[in-house]
Amino acid sequence: MWKRAAVVALLAFFAGCADDGINLFTVQDDAELGAEVAAEIESDPQTYPPYEGDPSVATYLETRVFEHILESPEIEYNDAFSYRVEIIDDPETLNAFALPGGRVYVYTGLLKYLDNEAALAGVLAHEIAHAERRHATRRLTKYYGVSFLLSVLLGENPSTVAEIAANLFVGAAFLANSRDDEYEADEYSFKYLRDTRYYPGGVKFFFEQMRDQNLIDTSRSSVETFLSPHPDPIDRISEIDERLNEANVPVVSWDAETRTDVYREEYETNVKTPLSTRTR
Ligand SMILES: [Zn+2]
Questions:
Q1: CA–centroid distance, residue 105 to ligand 1 (Å)
Q2: Can you tell me the distance from the alpha carbon of 17 to that of 38, in angstroms, rounded to the nearest whole number?
């Protein structure tokens, strides 16, 4: 719950700021908002069917890849957030998303599509970055405006910030990530992966694979990707290639055979094979 005096102090502070990057919510609000939305997701298995096949897939994702990324010293909110990864059983959807507060959801369609573990790590690190950079509550602040949020938060009979935020968040269809948020999440995916066993450019592998298989439809966003259609996937590939060059890491593509840090066989054995043999 917000303390009125603190809010008034904040209001005075924000009055002098540009609205970019302002976040009217606390880190704890992010965690609570995420928990509220996660409960809504759990209560709607029609829309978000949980994967109930081979449990080793979830364990593998969580312990081998997700938790490994979270060991990066770049991660700030390991304690404040409830980081975990969930699998949604929808083989047609090439998507993943993150809630504020650290819950990440990945669709079986994306897991089956990806080619190697570095590609998966790139996606998961990108989603972790949305949570770490607190994009959802920053967007909520920007979208609804400081004055509107304050009027709600200071209103009579206030519910918790998390409840209000959850309603706003879901009401705005999860507030699609902005172009800048996507680029920033790619940038941080690269940063996090540099501290892991994985090829740090993994986040671009998905786009390269889509490109090489002619699945990028530039005319419209017919394919739901884990990334909104706003930033051009081709631009995002070159952005990552630039980072690789700057870091003196050889630029290779998603199907490179020469690197051991993409972990293709491990991915095949532990993710793709169990998913293809156990479908609902
Ligand atoms: Zn994203």
A1: 12
A2: 32
